[in-house]
Amino acid sequence: MQGDGLEQEALALGALHARLSALVERWTAGVEDCQTPRENLLLFRREAPTGPCSCLVEPSIVLVVQGAKQLLIGDHAYAYDQQRFLITALDLPGTSQVLEASPEHPCLGLVLRLDLRIVAELIAQTGAAPTRDRAAEGSAALGTVTASLLEPFHRLVTLLDEPEALNVLAPLIEREIHYRLLTSDMAARLWQIASAGSQSQRIARAIEWLKAHYAQPLRVEELAAQAQMSQSTLHHHFRQLTAMSPLQYQKWLRLSEARRLMLNERLDAASAAFQVGYESPSQFSREYSRLFGSPPRRDIEGLRGRPTGAESAPVGAPSRPPRSGLR
Fold first, then answer.
1. Where in the chain is the domain with CATH 2.60.120.280?
2. 131 near 195, Cβ under 8 Å?
3. How many angstroms separate the CA atoms of 124 and 171, rounded?
4. Whether the Cβ atoms of residue 47 and residue 102 lie closer than 8 Å to each other
5. Edge-to-edge order in the sheet of strand 53-57
6. Which residue in 33, 201, 202, 325 could disulfide with 227, CB within 3.0 to 4.6 Å?
7. Cα-flanking dihedrals φ and ψ of residue 256, to 5°?
8. The CATH number of 201-316 is which of 1.20.1050.10, 1.10.260.30, 1.25.40.80, 1.10.10.60?
9. Distance (Å, rounded) from C-alpha 107 to C-alpha 82?
């Protein structure tokens, strides 16, 4: 009898994957990224495997309904596909890579940005006790895809065909998705990131401060005060959760914003460097080359000439610079 139940679960999951992948394929026909009318929901499509690409990871759940992707944060690799979803807790620099994709069977999926306020409300409403799990210590984790989680995602994407009902019903479905996550094997992770006073919450405050002041000289004592931590505790937990120091994180913010300024606003390298807080163009060029693999001018020329299909987005979502929506 137990075998029959598992078989039925597998059949239901397969049917949901098939229906959801058909919807995502239709909405992404001819494009790599489809920003939906729901600002926190994005659909993506890749038709070829890609090399590693520097990206921004926002607090999100990422579902792959066809194909496979991988996220690298520091020394940790998170490979996800139809059986596993990715959940991320903080705004993090990472490396995204498409592992399985072809024109006939593209890598298809969606990104839903998490609302930690909803998570906190549901925790208070349900009164469930927190669980202890070492998986909750990282900034990203992999969860098991189930039919109960996939079904509301299917309803949410289906709702895109009903624009008059979308703004009324989508918030209810999104709240259900957050609840399903709290009843999944990612419950411990969500407890940690949503709990006021947790280390994740304090590091999140430090990250918000860095994003708002990335062009200014970094004073670690001021950052520690914002996070309500000692300097040593801040360094320890910041590196544990982001795989870098606060100074390295600020450098990444500066260089990513300079790249956006050169690419989208056509600033020259020296102007972009000064605007994001560098005093030395030569230091900027050296650090830019170490991060992106090429000097600024060559990198920007390569980006402008990049062929369709190159991986260019954070875990499936369009990257956003520090001053235009980096969350």
1. 2-194
2. no
3. 19
4. yes
5. 53-57, 92-100, 68-73, 76-80
6. 202
7. -65, -40
8. 1.10.10.60
9. 10
Domain 2-194: top CATH class: mainly beta
Structure tokens at 36: 């939906």
Nearest to 195 by CA among 94, 89, 123: 123
The predicted-structure confidence for 256-296, as pLDDT tens digits, reads as follows 999 999 999 999 999 999 999 999 999 999 999 998 889 99
- CB-based contacts of 286: which residues, under 8 Å, 6+ apart? none
Residue with tokens 């229906």: 19
Paired with 85 in beta bridges are 143
Domain with CATH 1.10.10.60 in the chain: 201-316
CB 241 within 8 A of CB 90: yes
- pLDDT for position 131: 59
Residue 228 has phi, psi (to 5 degrees) of: 55, 50
Model pTM? 0.77
Selection from 28, 4, 16 nearest residue 149 by Cα: 16
Separation of alpha carbons 43 and 62, rounded Å: 10
User: Using an 8 Å Cβ cutoff, are 321 and 256 in contact?
Assistant: yes
**pLDDT tens-digit map of 7-35:** 777 888 889 999 999 999 999 999 999 99
Q: Find the radius of gyration of the CA atoms of the chain.
A: 20
Q: Which two tokens stand for residue 87?
A: 């959940």
What the block records as the tokens of 27 is: 């909405």
Sequence-distant (6+) residues with CB within 8 A of 25 are 45, 66, 106, 108
Whole-angstrom Cα distance, residue 310 to residue 136? Answer: 32
